[in-house]
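Everyone, study these two lines:
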Amino acid sequence: MSASPRLTPASGAMLLALAAVWGGSFFFAEVALQEVPPMTLTLHRVFWALPVLYCVVRWRGIPLPRAPRIWAAYLVMGALNNAIPFSLIFWGQQWLESGLASILNGTTAVFGAVVAGLLLKDEPLTLNKTMGAFLGLAGVAAVMGPSALSSFDLRSLAQIAILGAALSYALAGVWGKTALAGQPPLMNALGMVAGSTVLMVPVALLSDGVPQLALPTSVWAALAAMSVLSTALAYLLYFAILTRAGAANLMLVTLLIPPFAIALGAAFLGESLPPGAYTGFAIIAVGLMVSDGRLLRAARKKGAS
């Protein structure tokens, strides 16, 4: 009987690297949004990642699927996991600090547990997941603050947009498990990015017009980092960690992303967050740990021994 996946020093280092490149995406977006509108920014992120992932797939000798059904599934996956959430996050970041956006995006794992519990028979909605969901909502309330209820402004809408992105990521997880489970993971990454690129070309053209290429060097650097590091490299790390450490350990990246985003925003953009944001992040983190259940099981075992 093979040992269950566990977090080794090597996979732990990869987890930190994934958190860094995903946390960096919020910082890179803040830089790029100075010159690039949100829909075009989403197109840049997936378009430039596509050739990188294609080269990796060909180098690994993974055949491209021929069935139209698989490519249709990639189109849906590209919408749920890239096109919709990236666009919502980038639109929201026009009015939010990068660190705050990353904290709200941290609800993805809590949404994922609830959505999977409702839609997947093999992942029932347990008491732990329900408690975790309520804690996640409490954390969101603490992050947004009471003013979000009394004054419905652009900042409130921006925060709701980030939460919409988290829900889209959760739905993508269910879709990937049901529609793409039999495909090679790296091919899934390539197909998903290809699908989102196809979707975002007309959306960006209709929304923002033809993309401007005469951009400052700093913006091009941010676009390159977001595409190559935060998208292509991130997916390679994602699937490597999934294979070595399992899905439960991979969920921990949700807790590690905001510190990187907050630190980069504070160091290079002069961002500062209200105390409620840190309180909310702590509550969301507890909600994730309750949903995951491993710490509670370990505490029970220790108490029983």
